[in-house]
Design a protein that fits this description.
19 strands, D-Maltodextrin-Binding Protein, domain 2, Dipeptide-binding Protein, domain 3, 3 domains
């Protein structure tokens, strides 16, 4: 894999990228030495155990959507009704298909009612049966916002007003309004099967240390600070599920160290190492997750309340160069959420026009903070440096303000006027074939962005009443106007995750967010 192509980038971009690479290499050498000196058993020669180098150790193993490091573990234990399998063609156009999991089939029997035929013969790890009663109990537990709030989590099931039992293996889910995307974000993130008797006795809190689901793996032990061991569930309903008898997760926060665990034979799969670190390995795979990366612009404070300033910031970014220099073949330039069924052209790279717009706005030389620290993709520091260089080059004076994730999230959740003008953000919206929720989150008045228009909010909501071509046409119109008229964000690239692989590991990962061990095997 070729990661750095000098002909594809301008000299300033190349200089920054190479200097950052040298720093990473030096850090990797020191960190890897520490990691390899640990007491972790080697993966080589152990065909009965599959070792995953994860980003961070989960704080708990609750069934709620959590950090991606936690989800890498919990989604092998808990299962949803259906799994979105998002793939891309050569042009990057998305295709979403839903694979049955705890539901065998489903249909939309009314605009606000979905009927699910549940899979029969499924048992939980503790021997309880999966059926309509279990589904109803799972929904009741996971939709309780007060309970979720106790754990600092959110319930994503608010669009669903109720779950009704039709018979032992049939349920109806009723939504507050027509929602053709119900199978996407709402159910994929919000709902998994939970053992009803256990939850009735111990509550969801009882699952924090001892998760119990219907998945192919069950918890064997959790040595905090060391490892999490899952073993294959003997009574798993799918005979074609993953073949590895056990899976061990170890936490290695630095992408360079995760990559080194593969190179040294310490792990089989190094999660989310990024394209640069993957280039140091013999084997890697692109897939199993993508993020749309860019900068949130505060439309309510100066100077980013000026649409021409927002356009200047967009024109200052060399998206093609960034995609080539930092991400290799794992990213594509975007002008809207990545991998959505619309065609929105990114802004061209035009620093001269950007400089003119900054001068006309009277803000040449202005000092601005660029806040970052989400720590969702390994390339975050590189991107921050490149954005600073790009904005400095058009006449601004940018200070990078890197924060710890908790502080970063707190700043990003403040009321719009109290947020910084430039806030670097990487979002997984779009991972689930879901559109309306992403629009409301990133562009809605009650969302996490810094753009608010009641007229647009109404258009977003109205998409739920449309289907087929009419829906796509309306979405295309909305996306065009958000990009070209409002220019409320700097969308830069859609980044697919890159994972390191040991020799003999075979994968068939889709592009959507979660990695299932069903998609990974040893040759």
């Amino acid at each position: 894999m070729t990661i750095f192509t000098p002909a594809a980038v301008r000299p300033p971009l190349a200089d920054i990228t190479m200097s950052r690479r040298a720093l990473l290499a030096a850090a990797a050498a020191g960190s890897a030495a520490l990691a390899l000196a640990s007491s972790m058993r080697t993966a080589s020669g152990q065909s009965d155990e599959f070792v995953v180098a994860n980003e961070l150790e989960p704080s708990d193993l609750l069934p709620y959507f959590s950090s991606y490091g936690a989800v890498l573990v919990t989604r092998q234990v808990y299962q949803p009704l259906a799994e979105p399998r998002l793939t891309l063609n050569e042009q990057g156009v998305v295709d979403v298909a839903y694979t049955p999991v705890l539901a065998e089939s489903w249909e939309r029997v009314e605009p606000t009612r979905w009927r699910f035929a549940l899979r029969q013969g499924v048992t939980f790890h503790n021997g309880e049966a999966w059926n309509a009663d279990a589904a109803k109990a799972s929904f009741d537990a996971l939709s309780d916002g007060d309970v979720a709030a106790e754990f600092g989590r959110s319930s994503f099931l608010a669009p669903i007003t109720g779950l009704e039992i039709v018979d032992e293996f049939t349920i109806d889910m009723v939504s507050a309004q027509p929602d053709p995307e119900l199978l996407g974000l709402t159910l994929r993130i919000g709902f998994v099967g939970l053992p009803p008797a256990f939850v009735a006795s111990d509550g969801i809190a009882g699952l924090a240390e001892t998760p119990i689901g219907t998945g192919p793996y069950q918890l064997d032990r959790w040595d905090r600070g060391q490892e999490i061991l899952l073993t294959k569930f003997a009574d798993y309903w799918d005979a074609d599920g993953p073949a590895m008898p056990s899976v061990r997760f170890v936490s290695r926060p630095e992408a360079s160290v995760r990559a080194q665990t593969v190179a040294a034979g310490e792990s089989h799969f190094a999660y989310n190492v990024g394209a640069e670190q993957a280039a140091t390995l013999d084997n890697s795979v692109i897939g199993g997750g993508f993020q749309s990366s860019g900068i949130r612009l505060n439309n309510q404070i100066a100077p980013t309340n000026d649409v021409n300033v927002r356009r200047a910031l967009n024109l200052a970014i060399d998206r093609e160069g960034i995609a080539a220099a930092i991400f290799g073949g794992a990213a594509v330039p975007i002008g809207f959420f990545g991998f959505q069924p619309v065609d929105v052209a990114p802004f061209p790279y035009d620093p001269e026009q950007a400089t003119t717009l900054i001068e006309e706005a009277g803000i040449a030389g202005m000092e601005l903070d660029l806040v970052y620290g989400e720590a969702r993709i390994p390339e975050e520091d590189q991107l921050a440096e490149l954005y600073k260089a790009s904005f400095d080059a058009i006449g601004l004076n940018i200070t990078l303000s890197k924060m710890e994730p908790l502080q970063y999230n707190e700043v990003g959740a403040r009321p719009f006027p109290d947020q910084p003008p430039l806030y670097m953000e990487t979002t997984s919206n779009g991972n689930f074939g879901e559109i309306v929720g992403g629009l409301l989150d990133k562009y809605g008045c009650d969302g996490t962005g810094t753009f608010c228009s009641p007229e647009y909010d109404a258009e977003f909501a109205a998409l739920r009443n449309l289907e087929g071509d009419a829906r796509l046409e309306s979405l295309q119109s909305i996306a065009d106007r958000l990009q070209n008229d409002e220019t409320s964000r700097v969308w830069v690239v859609a980044v697919q995750q890159v994972h390191g692989l040991a020799e003999g590991v075979v994968t068939d990962l889709p592009a959507n967010a979660y990695i299932r061990l069903d998609d990974i095997s040893l040759a």
